[in-house]
Amino acid sequence: MITVDDLREHPLDQVHRLMEPGPVILVTTQQHGIPNVMTNGFNMMIRHVPPLIGCTIGPWDYSYSALRETGECVISIPDRELAVAVVDIGNCSGQDVDKFQEFDLTPVAAQQVQAPLIAECFANIECRVVDTTLVGTYDLFVLEAVRAWTDPSHPRLRMLHHRGDGTFTCDGDAIDLKDRMHKWQYLL
Fold first, then answer.
1. Most buried residue among 40, 69, 153, 173 by CB atoms closer than 10 A?
2. pLDDT digits over 116-131, tens only?
3. CATH architecture of the region 20-187
4. pTM
C-alpha cells in the first residue's frame, strides 16, 4: 500500500501546473474605438445555462481598464497554428503595440459587443461582464456569453493548454463517451 512517504511533495507555487484551468485564449476589448487583444491562460467555464465564463484579468493587463469601462469583450479560441503568435501577444502590451497589426490578426465586427472577433481563431464568443464582485479580491470577471461563432473551415480544433512553465500541450484524439452520459443527456 502506498503512503505519503512514497510520494514527492509538490511546490505550492507550482500547483497551477497540475491543474490547468482551461485552454489558452485571446481576449479582445475595445476602448475609445481602439481594439486590443491579450493572451489569457486563467479561465474556466462556470455554468452551462446561462453560459458563464470566469476569466482572470488584472490591473497589470492593459485590457483591464477597457473591460472595466465597457463591460464587454470577445473570447477568441486559437488553435495550434497560432501558438507562436499567442505567446508573442502575451509578451507585449497593447499600450505600446497595435497587436492586430503586429500579429496580422483580422478584426471582424461582432454583433452584440463592440470588441472585435478574430478571424484567424477557430471560435469567438461575444461576452458581457455580469459579475465583478470577485475582481477586487481575485481579479476574476464573470462573463456571460451572448453570442458564439465557429469557423467551419477549421478541419479539427487543437486548443493550446499552457503547462505553466513555457511549454504547451495541444488537444489530441477525442474519446466519445456520449452513451455513458446518462445524467447529462440534455447537454449532448
1. 40
2. 999 999 999 999 999 9
3. Roll (2.30)
4. 0.89
Instruction: Give the pLDDT means over successive 10-residue stretches in the chain (188 positions).
Output: 82 72 90 96 90 95 96 95 94 95 97 97 95 97 95 80 82 78 69
Residue 144's identity, in one-letter code, is: E
Residue appearing with cell numbers 472595466? 68
Calpha distance 4→144 (Å, rounded)? 42
> Which among 147, 103, 140 is positioned nearest to 123, based on CA atoms?
147
Q: What is the distance in angstroms between the CA of the first residue and the CA of the last residue of the chain? A: 40
